[in-house]
Task: structure prediction
Amino acid sequence: MDQASINRRLRLKKGRIARRFGNTYIRTLRAKYGEGFAPGERSERKLIDVLHHLDDQSLGRLIEELSGHQTR
Result:
């Protein structure tokens, strides 16, 4: 798969994540996914504000949730 396809798929997934979880506070997501979710981000910020620089592990958890797999 070429880089353009990978980037396009990631943008689509991030768009779906933003629609589903965008207004969710980081503290709420940490309660579900653990304190390591979105490290370095303040808990009172919303996901939509930090999505563009979310770490791979945290992003992966949300993608799994969109796919219907339970992370815990």
Observations:
- Residues 7 and 18 are 16 Å apart (CA to CA).
